[in-house]
């Protein structure tokens, strides 16, 4: 039996965080009160969340031959993560995150080198050597469609369960839904994937039925302050949200949830139990600024969890 190890394939790069009273209207210039920089990306943050749960983790992605790429490698290694990074002759990915007074955020991303990752890169000896050791694979929609589908295919070939976080939810290949063991959209992403309109408010049963029709065997739909829905073998369970203080920044909540969820699954926990632990981790994380820097440690999460979840 494989030792628990999570392979995360995704985007890693530099991020600039700013705080503002409100988001700008078209043509409007606003003043921001704060500015700080943090390395990140959905997959990058999720890998850190996995590792902080004490699970062996490898992050697979592409960076540029620049200072941001070097910084990504160093931070991953400092976190105890195996950094399997392919170097491209393109700048490392960069994102700008703005948070308003209500702790909502907008994110603008330049994919850079991360978007230049190819299916051939994933089939390289170095990457395949790492993937063969993995007990779970975690993916997001920040990869190119060709890489995402190749990663799903590799997961199937190696009999590795694939967790797919379809974020951002635009242009998600339908084959990636059916090629995943578990899909983890938030409510808005689930609506988009299921073909519901912006003003429609489908209930859990409707989402479950449409996701199943699109090939999703199991799903966890995150609902922000309302918790999450777990859909498994046609059964729907509600996971309550966890709060340990006033929300400061929700930027990293989804990444924290997905990384901790996958880590718990790799450790052999049932899906509902894993989702409860992930909700606790996300609830801790939103009380802190930033994304990767807000992710709690395994000891912090354990201190707030019920005994039966651990």
Write a structural description.
- The chain is α/β, with parallel strands linked by helices and 310 residues long.
- The chain has one domain: UDP-N-acetylmuramoyl-L-alanine:D-glutamate ligase (3-Layer(aba) Sandwich).
- It contains twelve helices and 13 strands.
- Strands 5-4-1-8-9-10-11-12-13 form a nine-stranded mixed beta sheet, with helices on both faces.
- A hairpin with a 5-residue loop joins strand 11 and strand 12.
In short:
The chain is an alpha/beta fold and 310 residues long. Helices cover 35% and strands 24% of the residues.
Topology diagram in text:
Layout: E1 5-9, E2 13-19, E3 34-40, H1 42-52, E4 56-64, H2 67-78, E5 82-88, E6 93-99, E7 105-110, H3 112-115, H4 119-122, H5 125-131, E8 136-140, H6 145-157, E9 162-165, H7 174-178, E10 182-183, H8 187-194, H9 204-213, E11 218-222, E12 228-232, E13 235-239, H10 253-266, H11 271-285, H12 298-304
Parallel strand pairs: 1-4, 1-8, 2-6, 4-5, 8-9, 9-10, 10-11
Antiparallel strand pairs: 2-3, 6-7, 11-12, 12-13
